[in-house]
Specification:
The structure is a homodimer. The longest helix of chain A has 17 residues. The first copy, chain A, is of the alpha+beta class. Chain A contains seven helices and 18 strands. Chain A is globular and about 65 Å long. In chain A, helix 3 packs across helix 7. In chain A, a hairpin with a 2-residue loop joins strand 14 and strand 15. Chain A starts with a strand and ends with a strand. Chains A and B meet through strand 6 of A and strand 6 of B. Chains A, B: It comes from Thalassospira lohafexi. Chains A, B: GO terms for molecular function: catalytic activity.
Chain lengths: 339, 339
């Protein structure tokens, strides 16, 4: 089942069911007005959504099909009660540290890094990334995220895994220029993590077939910059902590409410135990600009790839083994914010 | 106007209007079903709520008055789309640093500290603080918080100030034993900040009269531990950044959605330019246990006041100049969580 949220002038939008090939949608708001409402009552709502999805797939539904236009979509949750983003590809973290000649503590391989992100106003998948100043070092971060049901405090890995309801992609927009100063203050990210965007649709795990093993998505994440392949890192490779571990980490000292979004952190693959190579050189590339800049810094002493400029376009998508898009594409242009 | 949220078996509860003396409430759900719904459409909803409040105050309302029982209340927002907590009483931060012999950067006096908190499942004002382990160093933090309307990205101080809709109290429960390890990882708080609780009612700024100057609440915050006065720090004193500055800080790189909760951080007063004294010794006391432990450490080399134990009771309240409770009392007991 694929779910999306249509912009309809309200803050939470209208819940729609999307066909497997992403070509059409059907209004699902009679079953639940919004995706949050569906998640609030998933045990009752999901079977009814599945029934409608099955009817649509079988061609037996009398519901009116409309052509899907991703620019008319909100993120699946236009706002959420929680956005907890892990950093599960420890390779990425190790590289960041190496670029500034800092040792990475051994515990980073056993204890997940996670930050609490802002979730009150997500960007739609095709909304502009409007920023006041490119000196802030605007960057994309291609990630996977799950949406959970209620998770009890102290949840086991099995409880955490079983609470995963939906999967989607993320562009965790980051302001690299603001990160060092903000992290030095000791309280984590705030201004350096502006609004994130999510893929047009969120899918139930079964839509991924055997590419979903209960904790990881074993497919490449396609990140394109200005129409050129920038990243093809496999989300199932080098993910030190799977989603069950990330959700359990988030729930250690408090319960998670239904509709909590938990992210993987920037997808990142090693190459022969070391940093990866650009896609153009036959490597898996990168899911954020910071990573190629770190490698440039390690190799040549200075970064040469610039962060995002006004007019730059970022596309993040994942294709199934049959070559079709699973979640639709996050496709955003960076623009200058004018207050 | 005083607003509260009655527990009614739903996640967001039922919006009620509370009488000025906190003795009674009237159902307001016909105007807006929940407080978030009211905030989503404040310009239209607020005048109708004010009209009802005026009728109740005048005794002309036909709405049924019920006796208010704070144990039946959720936090005003049982869950929120944002909980951004500042640390505006820099005195508190300076003390923490001093206790571990760390210099505080001068910029802390000009650039607010703020962390993104979890907002998906707040505790009710009289709900137990259920934790698995007292070794986590369970502590209260008495704070003030505001709830905002929509705030544009890059908001000016005036825009930020004008977006403040409601004021309430917070118990920002903290796990001191988990903080050093978590902050050392560099991504800020996560497991060390479990669910917070808010006061029974949230009030519009006019309810504070001249105790509200547009940015600060000039009244003592009463924090009691096991029935004894623990803190009487004045929230209007030593607040280095007022709420306009905190809201503007939060909105620097992204807009804030209506219903964003922005906190002051632990209320803390200096005494003659140095650390305060316990209430029993004639001082303003402390709004968290960590602070008295820091002072004990500075003065004697070791902390002697223990963090919260199972069975301990924390009460946080603020009285108006006439001696009556403005927000009702946060009144929580620490209990052992059993999964």
């Amino acid at each position: 089942m694929k779910l999306a949220t249509l912009k309809n002038g309200t803050r939470d939008g209208q819940l729609v069911l999307v066909t497997g090939d992403l070509s059409h949608y059907v209004d699902a708001s009679a079953i639940a007005p919004t995706l949050q409402a569906a998640l609030d009552d998933w045990a009752i709502v999901a079977p009814r959504l599945i029934e409608l999805a099955d009817e649509i797939a079988a061609g037996s539904s009398i519901a009116k099909r409309e052509a899907l236009d991703a620019t008319q979509l909100h993120s699946p949750l236009p706002r959420a009660f929680q956005w907890a983003d892990g950093s599960a590809y420890v390779n990425h973290v190790e590289l960041v540290r190496k670029a500034r000649s800092a040792e990475m503590p051994e515990t980073f391989w056993t204890d997940p890094l996670m930050y609490q992100g802002g979730s009150d106003r997500f960007l739609g998948p095709c909304d502009d990334i409007a920023m006041a100043d490119t000196a802030w070092g605007i960057d994309m971060e291609g990630e996977i995220a799950v949406i959970t049901d209620d998770v009890p405090m102290g949840a086991s890995l099995d409880q955490a895994r079983d609470a995963i309801r939906l999967i989607m992609l993320v562009n965790d927009v980051s302001l690299r220029g603001l990160i060092p100063g903000e992290l030095a203050k000791g309280f984590g990210f705030f201004q350096s993590k502006p609004s994130s965007a999510f893929s047009p649709v969120a899918v139930t795990p079964d839509e991924l077939g055997d590419a979903w093993d209960g904790g990881k998505v074993h497919l490449p994440l396609n990140v394109d910059l200005n129409g050129k392949p920038f990243g093809r890192a496999n989300a199932g490779v080098d993910m030190t902590f799977d989603f069950a571990q990330l959700v359990a980490h988030a729930a250690r000292t408090r319960p998670l409410g239904a509709g909590s979004v938990v992210g993987s952190g920037t997808v990142s693959n090693k190459l022969d135990g070391g940093p990866g190579k650009p896609v153009a050189e036959g490597g898996a590339g990168y899911s954020c600009i910071a990573e190629i800049r770190m490698i440039e810094t390690i190799e040549t002493g200075a970064a040469k790839t610039p962060f995002l400029q006004f007019g730059d376009r970022v596309k993040i998508e994942m294709l199934g083994k049959d070559g079709t898009s699973i979640f639709g594409a996050i496709d955003q242009t960076v623009t200058q914010y004018k207050g």
